[in-house]
Amino acid sequence: MGVEQTERKHLLVVDDLTRRFRRRGKDFDAVSHVDLVMDEGDFVAIVGRSGNGKSTLISMIAGLIEPTSGTVRVDGEIVGRMDDRTLSRLRNQTIGFVMQSQTLLSNLTVLDNVVLPATLFDDAAGAAGPAAQSDVSGGEASDAMPEDAITPDPLNERAMALLERLGVADLAGSYPKELSGGEMRRVSIARALMNGPRLLIADEPTGDLDQESTEVVMNLLRGLADEGTAVLMVTHDSEALGYADYALRMDAGVLSRP
Amino acid sequence: MGRIASEDGAPVNSHITLRSLPAENLRRKPLRTVALIIVVMLLSVALFGGSLLSINLGNGMRSMEERLGADLMVVPQNSAQQAEALLANGSPGTFYFTEEAASAVAKADGVAQFTEQVYISSLAAACCASKLQIIGYDPSTDFVIQPWLSSQFDGEVKDGQIVAGAGVNVSSDGTIELYGRTWPVVAQLASTGTSLDNSVFINRATIPSMVEASAQVSHRVMPEQYEKKAVSAVLIKVADGYDPHTVAESITKLDPSYKSLGFVYPGGITSSAKASLGSLVGYTAIFVAVLWVMGVIVLLVVFFSSVNERKREFASLRIMGATRGMLRGVIAREALIVSLAGGVTGVALASLFVFPFSSLIGRQLQLPYLQAGPLAVIGMIAVSVLCTVVVCMGASMLAMCKLARPEAYVTLREGQ
């Protein structure tokens, strides 16, 4: 009884999580018996050398790959037991995921890329968490407008507010191929924040960014954490580490305090 | 915050949705989209055009069988080939017996019924509306033309009057010009898909007037002494239990000179036309099948290669929360748009050739060719478009299976 109640209090509970792969006939644990607990407002950084299991860990947390053993609970629900629709809804509304690689849809404009996640489920637009709510409040939609004026779409407004916050609002009408790596990264972050996730997972969010952009992104992530969003970040960037509450080291699949 | 605007500066008051994503994907990949539509269009052209061609040929054959009511045609020496052409889908001709033969032929064993017909070809010259087959028949004995005429024309064809086949151009005042004279057309018959469509029918008593008219325009179609008694063919219905070939043989035994007569077996014409039709329909079916197999392979290749190209796109959609069903929906809608566009364009393109050039196709094939009715055509359109949609959706769903296999994470980490 005690364990169940304790787990329900946390936003994220990773319990004895292991993922085993086979390489050249030999089994190895990319992630080995990892435990992690996060609450709303936590900002945790994971550091470690490439190939030590960081991306595998966060992908299991988001339900993108299945663990060999152990469980991931988000908001008290075990991710591995969810059906496709429930898991997809979790990814869409509770978890925001910023991948290390470029994942913008090439056929859509920056604005449409950011808006799209909010259109996948009927209730997605209304499910935005604290971060997104604060973004929307920054819009100008409520300003007095003439009767014949075209009312901007609320989702477009919210997406524009996020792009503005990340310094790429002027690129709203551009297509991904017209953007630099850093610009694409910032648009990806805006997209991950579109539905106001309670847990933001970011894999190398400052990977392609210059110092100025890094500051913009990290201030944003810090601000989100301060507003109640749990942020789990994988990074190599020592500058970014300073924004986190604390850092964990991933070494040969084992997560530990440095 | 600045005013929200689209690329061209217009205010944006609507947003992208999963439903509009397929159209956007197709719009942003015009080359791929057009290539796919062309492949689907070719499939549709082949299926619709090929099937309609086969149906029309089949209709023509049935119609020809219905119109050829005689079992045996006795024609003058060296005229058998011309008579066969006249029955199938050949060019008009003029031939006649120079000696009285009909009554003698009728005496042969096994003849149940007989009638005489006269065939005259009009000219492709200023004197005539066009080159037509003029068929003179004897209403008192006829059992071939009359039943058909009476099913289409309620009345009696009087001397000097004409009944026109479906393919004959009749003037707006209801007349036709033949050998410099204007003849009243009392009825126009429904299409049969045979050379009868390019024929006009007259009472045999009108033949002398027609011959005289031809003499007036410097081309007398037959000498004056034959114009009243000319017979081009004796059409025979054999008695029950008799074979037309046996009857033909008994005719040749009536008089040694009858050995040189021409014997045409309309049933045989139908069989040879059927054989030609069968091979043509067979070749058409093979052609359509080969085109379809190639088209389906091309579609599969295009869909599979596009899946490889789009793995990241779909992995990205999965990560942002799209279910497998949503991805299937995107792929299915793209396939639906492409297949409908290609299918409908293909049917329209095939129609541009099949319908306006229907009679030309019939003439070129030298086979009876009768355009299917509107209901059959509508049915064929529906089947063709449905087939292209099913094949296109099937190919895209096969590709989708491949897409759904690797986990999104694995796809996105490829090459990292």
Keywords for this entry:
heterodimer, A: 258 residues, alpha/beta, Rossmann fold, six-stranded mixed β-sheet, four-stranded antiparallel β-sheet, 9 helices, 10 strands, B: 416 residues, alpha+beta, 2 domains, nine-stranded mixed β-sheet, 12 helices, 9 strands, elongated, disordered N terminus
Notes on the protein architecture:
The complex is a heterodimer of chains A (258) and B (416). Chain A is α/β, with parallel strands linked by helices. Chain A has a single domain, classed as Rossmann fold (3-Layer(aba) Sandwich). Chain A is 33% helix and 24% strand. Chain A has helices at residues 2-9, 54-61, 84-93, 110-115, 130-137, 154-165, 181-193, 211-226, 238-241, and strands at residues 12-23, 26-38, 43-47, 69-74, 77-78, 95-98, 199-203, 230-234, 246-251, 254-256. In chain A, strands 6-7-8-3-9-10 form a six-stranded mixed sheet, sandwiched between helices. In chain A, strands 2-1-4-5 form a four-stranded antiparallel sheet. In chain A, strand 7 (199-203), helix 8 and strand 8 form a beta-alpha-beta unit. Chain A starts with a helix and ends with a strand. The model of chain A is unreliable at 1-8 and 130-145 (pLDDT under 50). Chain B is an alpha+beta fold. Chain B has two domains: 21-63 and 272-413, no CATH class; 72-264, no CATH class. Chain B is 52% helix and 12% strand. Chain B is built from twelve helices and nine strands. Chain B has helices at 21-28, 30-67, 80-87, 102-105, 145-152, 207-216, 244-252, 266-319, 324-354, 358-365, 374-404, 408-413, and strands spanning 72-75, 111-121, 133-137, 162-164, 175-178, 181-188, 199-203, 233-238, 262-264. In chain B, strands 5-6-4-7-3-2-8-1-9 form a nine-stranded mixed sheet, sandwiched between helices. In chain B, helix 2 packs antiparallel against helix 8. Chain B is elongated and about 100 Å long. Chains A and B meet through helix 3, helix 4 and helix 6 of A and helix 1, helix 8, helix 9 and helix 12 of B.
